[in-house]
Amino acid sequence: MLPLRRLNPLVAGTGVLVASIMMAVGLIGVPLDTLHLTIGRSAALDRGPATALAMVLLAASSLGLLACLRAVRAPVSGWPERLVAVWAASLTGTALLPGTVAADIMIVVALVALAGAAALMVRRFGDDERWRPAARPLEWLSLGAGGALAVLTYVALPGHRVMVGTVEWSLLGIETAVLAVVAVHLTRITWSLADAPSATPAPAVAAMPVAFTSAPAMPVAAPAMPAATAVPASVAAATPVPVESAPTVVPAPTRSRPVSPARTPARMPARTPAMSAGRALAMMLAPAMKSTSSSAGQSTRVLSRH
């Protein structure tokens, strides 16, 4: 069973194809005088409601095609989608009010709106890589629609409405081809997006072992803090409070030339001063004086005994 996302552009494209076939069948066997009438008056003279139903189906298919374009984020936002909506509304009004002046005005508004939407889509599709293949066929069709509008303007004003119906039917066929080209390329893009596998990366948490995720957290008891001892007021007042000093700025090292050591003169041996004559005589007489004093002391001790 095909998903609904694939079926939507197929349904819209099928509606455009069936509507174009119904219009072509409705023109078979009509008298040539009918081709000089506008599409609205031709729908009023139709023996059956085939033309009116074809226009309603074409308008509904255009709105469905627009919804599918917005679903795939096609570059049709802004004026292109507004002009397509105007085309669908005007085409439905022409089918509901056939044979009136309002129908003639609305069919012209519808044809001009879709021609403008095709011209805008050519530029936007050319800038989008996905829709670039559909830009060249739309460019040729929009050029044809512009030429048909120029002919329609000439026929309606100075041409006295000669073969105005033929020009309108030709322009309607060109714009139906525009819708068919968009529907074919939309179906191709929708099916390619549906066939593309969705790559969803697995979360990193799923790859972790269970042992790391299921282990319960063990409570850790905080160590008991000793009771604060009372500090005497005198001690607290005498205790200096450290003051944060400013950070010391360390100068950056500077590169300097190596300084060669200064040459020191060789040490000369100290000269022994010359001994004086008096000191030398004293040193020579010191032993004699020492012996004399010792003998004198002995004699004094002997006399004292006697």
Shape: rod-shaped
* Main beta-sheet strand count, sense and barrel state: none
Radius of gyration: 59 Å
Helicity, in percent?
55-70%
Distance between the termini: 164 Å
Total number of strands:
0
Mean pLDDT: 74
Oligomeric state, counting identical vs distinct chains:
single chain
Beta-strand percent range: under 5%
Order of helices and strands: HHHHHHHHHH
Tally of DSSP helical segments: 10
Helix/strand class: mainly alpha
Low-confidence stretches: 198-216, 226-239
Describe the structure.
- This protein is mainly alpha-helical.
- The chain has a domain at 4-190.
- It is built from 10 helices and no strands.
- The chain has helices at 4-26, 39-45, 50-71, 79-96, 101-127, 135-156, 164-195, 210-214, 233-238, 277-305.
- Helix 4 packs antiparallel against helix 5 (101-127).
- The chain is rod-shaped, with a radius of gyration of 59 Å.
- The termini are far apart.
- Residues 198-216 and 226-239 have low confidence and may be disordered.
